[in-house]
């Protein structure tokens, strides 16, 4: 079933980068009948690929006509390339009815190009492939097989057995692996889910990102999809990143800066700000409990300094635990009912907070004695650092909040 593809460019969506829940139904210029949805939409982002676009369209058509004939579309999304790639792509549409072309004149960027393509896509499964033949088209069939097996997302990876890169320079390999390592530190729950988070070659079920507003930066669309989508099952397929024949890579140091910005933005988007603020309020209330008990023991009852400090700190820790268990993490502790569970949480909370006291003392000494910092400033920085430490470790261990959303 070919599309009676009218010979015009696909309009560029101007709304926010949100993926429609239902496939966009295109009405053809002549019949105005909506085109029925299809199974697979593959976006080919291009910038100065006039020498590659015909070859990639030919190869993809031959491959997909052999596996899902009439049930796929190719969408070239070109950012008004100086070499007029969009025009070359348009000249192909009469021979390739399943090809659609978008020319973006007011937006630039690989990731947003892919999303604009997905916004006008009619497929149930949305994919992306580079136009420069560095992503072997044959791998598509294995990715589709992964999706058919039930995967929500299928990614081509250079870092699984039989995967690899052709002859990338040591610098490029180092930069790629380095970027991945930074991602694992900042966003382990996202970047750590795939072996090749830098991959620009993957497909995802529309239902997993439907309604999500994606906000990528630079080149790494896969991280954005993993970070904001409802992705449960991920399939990976090995591929070898090929040598570019025509044109050149657009990756510059700017993409690496964009990548860092993107990681941090996703990190804070996934940071449980509400819980963190409550934890801070509880911790602040603990200061008053600590000082109040210390005053009673030390001044009213004449206890020794160390004993007063230890007892007042412990009472403050228990008070903080009770409030956090009830308010900050109430939604979690409700799922872990019973006195035994609660006591286990208290023990963990206590141990982590006491370790926090040690970290506090070490930090103050380090900043005051080694860096000559003002002791009150040192104390403040130590309190802020330990509060972050206490929050994150308690959330992961005491209340076992796994998927931070
Ligand atoms: N529309 C659009 N706009 N397309 C772009 C842009 C842009 O600003 N920049 C690049 N592209 C297109 C290129 O035309 C090509 O089809 C594809 O995106 C990849 O661009 P390259 O410049 O060739 O990137 P690379 O080969 O160095 O890196 C690729 O492979 C890596 C490994 O999979 C990219 O896909 C990286 O994202 C990926 O990590
Ligand atoms: Mn390339």
Q: Specify the overall morphology.
A: elongated
The percentage of residues in β strands lies in 5-15%
Query: Any idea what the CATH architecture of the largest domain is?
Result: Alpha-Beta Complex
**What name is given to the CATH topology of the largest domain?**
Spore Coat Polysaccharide Biosynthesis Protein SpsA, Chain A
Question: CATH superfamily membership of the largest domain, which one?
Answer: Spore Coat Polysaccharide Biosynthesis Protein SpsA, Chain A
Specify Rg, calculated over alpha carbons: 27 Å
Largest sheet: 7 strands, mixed
Runs with pLDDT <50, length 5+? 1-5, 27-32
For the record, the CATH class of the largest domain is Alpha Beta
- The count of domains is 2
Give the N-terminus to C-terminus distance in angstroms: 42 Å
Structural class, by secondary structure, is alpha/beta
* Number of β-strand runs: 9
The helix count comes to 14
Q: Helicity, in percent?
A: 40-55%
Provide an overview of this structure:
- The protein folds into 2 domains: 38-269, Spore Coat Polysaccharide Biosynthesis Protein SpsA, Chain A (Alpha-Beta Complex); 273-396, no CATH class.
- The protein has helices spanning 53-65, 85-92, 110-120, 139-149, 170-186, 188-191, 206-209, 221-228, 253-270, 273-300, 305-328, 330-333, 339-370, 375-398; strands at residues 38-46, 72-78, 99-103, 123-128, 153-157, 164-165, 202-205, 234-238, 240-241.
- Helix 13 (339-370) packs antiparallel against helix 14 (375-398).
- It has 405 residues and is of the alpha/beta class.
- The protein binds guanosine-5'-diphosphate-alpha-D-mannose (GDD) and manganese (II) ion.
- The site of manganese (II) ion (MN) has 5 residues, from loops.
């Amino acid at each position: 079933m070919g599309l009676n593809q009218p010979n015009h460019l696909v309009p560029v969506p101007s709304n926010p980068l949100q993926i429609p829940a239902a496939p966009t139904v295109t009405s053809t210029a002549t019949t105005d009948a909506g085109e029925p949805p299809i199974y697979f939409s593959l976006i080919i982002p291009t910038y100065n690929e006039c020498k590659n676009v015909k070859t990639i369209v030919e190869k993809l058509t031959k491959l997909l006509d052999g596996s899902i004939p009439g049930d796929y579309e190719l969408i070239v999304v070109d950012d008004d390339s100086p070499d007029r790639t969009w025009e070359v792509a348009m000249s192909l549409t009469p021979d390739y009815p399943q090809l659609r072309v978008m020319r973006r004149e007011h937006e630039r960027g690989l990731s947003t190009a892919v999303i604009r393509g997905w916004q006008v896509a009619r497929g149930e499964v949305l994919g992306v492939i580079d136009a420069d033949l560095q992503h072997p088209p044959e791998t598509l069939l294995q990715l589709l097989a992964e999706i058919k097996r039930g995967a929500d997302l299928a990614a081509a990876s250079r870092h699984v057995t039989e995967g690899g890169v052709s002859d990338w320079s040591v610098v490029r390999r180092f930069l790629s692996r380095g970027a991945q390592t930074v991602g694992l530190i900042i966003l382990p729950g996202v970047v750590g889910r795939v072996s090749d988070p830098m991959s620009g070659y993957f497909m995802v079920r529309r239902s997993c990102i439907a309604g999500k507003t994606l906000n990528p930066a630079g080149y790494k669309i896969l991280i954005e999809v993993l970070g904001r989508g409802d992705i449960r099952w991920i399939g990976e397929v090995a591929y070898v990143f090929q040598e570019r024949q025509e044109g050149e890579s657009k990756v510059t140091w700017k993409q690496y800066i964009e990548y860092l910005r993107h990681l941090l933005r996703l990190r804070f988007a996934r940071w449980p700000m509400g819980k963190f603020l409550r934890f801070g309020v509880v911790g602040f209330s603990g200061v008053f409990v600590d000082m109040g008990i210390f005053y009673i023991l030390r001044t009213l009852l004449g206890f020794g300094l160390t004993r007063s400090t230890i007892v007042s700190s412990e009472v403050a820790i228990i008070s903080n635990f009770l409030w956090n268990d009830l308010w900050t993490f109430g939604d979690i502790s409700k799922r872990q009912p019973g006195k035994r569970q609660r006591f286990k949480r208290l023990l963990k909370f206590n141990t982590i907070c006491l370790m926090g006291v040690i970290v506090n003392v070490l930090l103050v000494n380090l900043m005051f004695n080694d860096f000559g910092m003002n002791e009150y400033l040192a104390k403040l920085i130590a309190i802020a650092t330990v509060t972050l430490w206490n929050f994150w470790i308690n959330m992961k261990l005491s209340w076992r909040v796994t998927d931070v959303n």
